[in-house]
Amino acid sequence: MTSSHILTGRYFMNGDHACAEGAIAAGCRFFGGYPITPSTEIAEHLSSRMPQIGGVYIQMEDEMGSMATVLGASAAGARAMTATSGPGFSLMMENIGLAAMMEIPCLVVNVQRGSPSTGLPTLPGQADVMQARWGSHGDYGVVAYAPWSPQEFFDLTVHSFNVADRYRIPVLLLADEVVGHMVERVEIPEADKIPHWGRKRPIGSKKEFKPFEAIDDDLVPPLAHAGEGYRLHFTGLTHDERGYPDMSADTHQVLVSRLVEKINRNPKDLIRTETFHLEGARIVVIAFGSTARSARRAVRVARERGLPVGFLRLISIWPFPEQLIRELAQDVDAFVMAEMNLGQMIREVERHVEQPVLGVNHAGGAMLAPEPILEAIEKVANNGSTSSR
Amino acid sequence: MVQPLLVEEHPLDGLIRADRMPHIWCPGCGIGIVMRCYAQAIINSGIDIEKHVVVSGIGCSGRVAGYMNIDSYHTTHGRGIPFAVGLKLANPELCVTVFSGDGDLAAIGGNHLIHAARRNIDITVICANNFNYGMTGGQMGPTTPYGALSTTSVYGCPEHPFNLVNLLAAAGANFVSRWTTIHVRQVIDDVLYAFNKPGFSFIEVLAPCPIGFGKSNDLEQGVDETLLYRERCVHEPDTALDKLGIDLREDQPIYVGRFVDREAPAYQPIRLEVEK
Question: Among A268, B13, B54, B68, whose Cα sits 20 to 30 Å from the Cα of A330?
Fold first, then answer.
């Protein structure tokens, strides 16, 4: 990576541009995408920046093609990404599954808008979180992050590339329109302060190399690239360690279990959360993305009013920090889950706790304000409703 | 007594994954012939075998990626071309070939086909055209002749097929040719030519599919369709592009040859500065 391409400094920048600069800082040199509101500024910015740094910007004919070309570029050794929003995210699901099955690293940014369907193109939503988890058919582990600021959009873009390479997976970055279009201070660190985890690369004989043999405890096989002399075979079919198709239930069980287990087994690298005001908290508010900004405000006001409330911000949506939730549940009476959808992540919280979980929801189109979250906190604190919706 | 002729090695052995044999193709299928031409062109090319990459989509022809002993990617249905575009743009040293079928390339992948040709991306596409979806048991597709029978056109195909040569020419490909599985030398020559030709190259090879297509359309054996090619193929490269439609059932010529060979600039990503 050439450090001069990293625009170290302090900027006033929108989230989409911060994501694009994060990608460049992470060494991404290939963007294949299709413009879609509210992610378009990522494509625009990279179309101007990639030619300056020897990278590739290619605007594809649709999102199926975008996702496929990103996988091709990554298979040839490039750090590669695309950016989209709900309708395009739906179209990408096919090859997100291929990325999971072929174990080809890449970054897919979804700047969420009001949905379903064409929905509210210019307005925010957080209703794609379950699609991110289950959108492509079949079982596979998923890693998805949700930034709450342009700065974090930059930071998580870098981190997502690292995770993608380290675990040979497509990483999903679920921003929302508020974070994508919000302009805030963004600090781009010096090149040597930008974390870089490389791909695990094959060692030893090229002839003996098996591209899907997980020799290490982390269950991640080393990744060889096209053109390096390994005579690779990659397929979306169920395959053995050589990559050869094998239509047997046994091979399928081994392969698919590994695709799930390699994510489950490595929570330390993957799960990220942030907590505020947990001391003495009897109520914990949970939120992510732009909604977390309102939630933090609500928690601050509630604390000022003497209510024993704390705050958990999910930075990783997937894997869901279930261990942490169970630990918190030992000391608290209730949870409040705020999200810009009609109740998706609340199911994950409910799965892991006995206490009541009160949802604060909005279908999307406008940021959840602090007030309804504050009302929910007060309701729970006054031991009012314990209904969960 | 006749001594059996023992051959220890075939010149293409190194390019075929013997441990994947037997292949899935039916007796009389033409795809293996096209794959053999591709393999021969790789040998003849003199390009380092390690730099050859084959990409396919889904279907019988898509299995070629699994049988060739080179870097090979068997992708999702229709997406071979955009995957290949990514490989080529990320590493321009690679000699990238998409080997797939008519249904994969022209139906579900049709949008990628025309746009890669429009951009004139420097890859080679070999299309084994057998006029139907063979792997799923013989359904009609975008190249099935009007009126032809298939398992989803039991009253005759009600749609008009693509004239792929005309489509690719209009879309902007630099090189477009059509042959059949009896034109082995020409296919090898054209694949080899396409490797070295900048821009998008498309080689259509008509291939018998006696099980999926032939048996319902009076071409019960692979050899029947092969004989039909021999009787009806006409090498007239100057034929107007819009006259190149194929109707196997009517007694009309099947035009073969190199129909487009032009020098439009190949796609290049914009570079303001070359990274050191």
Answer: A268
Nearest to B102 by CA among B204, B253, B26: B204
Closest chain B residue to the Cα of A226, Cα to Cα: B71
pLDDT at B274: 55
* Residue B258 bridge partners (DSSP): B177
Q: Number of residue pairs across A and B with CB atoms under 8 Å?
A: 155
The answer to whether position B98 is within a domain reads yes
ipTM: 0.96
Contact residues, chain B, for A51 at CB < 8 Å = 269-272
Asked if residue B116 is part of any domain, the answer here is: yes
User: Is residue B272 assigned to a domain?
Assistant: no
Query: Given pLDDT bands bounded at 50, 70 and 90, which one contains residue B5?
Result: confident
Candidates A367, A363, A357; CA nearest to A389 is A357
Question: Is some CB atom of chain B closer than 8 A to the CB atom of A185?
Answer: no
Class of A3-193 in CATH: alpha beta
End-to-end Cα distance, chain A: 49
Q: What is the DSSP letter of B265?
A: P
Concatenate the DSSP letters of all residues of A76-136 into one string. TT--EEEEE-HHHHHHHHHHHHHHHHHT--EEEEEEEEE-STT-EEEEE--TTHHHHHH-S
Q: In 3-state terms, what secondary structure has residue A284?
A: strand
The total number of structural domains in chain B stands at 1
Give DSSP secondary structure letters for B184-195: HHHHHHHHHHHH
And the tokens for A277? Answer: 């005001």
**CB pair distance less than 8 Å for A228 and B50:** yes
Residues B89-99 have a mean pLDDT of: 98
Q: What confidence score (pLDDT) does residue A3 get?
A: 66
CA–CA distance, B80 with B261 (Å, rounded to integer): 23
Q: Which residues of chain A carry a pLDDT beneath 70?
A: 1-3, 384-389
CATH architecture of A274-381: 3-Layer(aba) Sandwich (3.40)
How many angstroms separate the CA of residue A71 from the nearest CA in chain B?
6
Q: Tell whether B15 is covered by a domain.
A: no
The whole domain housing B55 covers 23-261
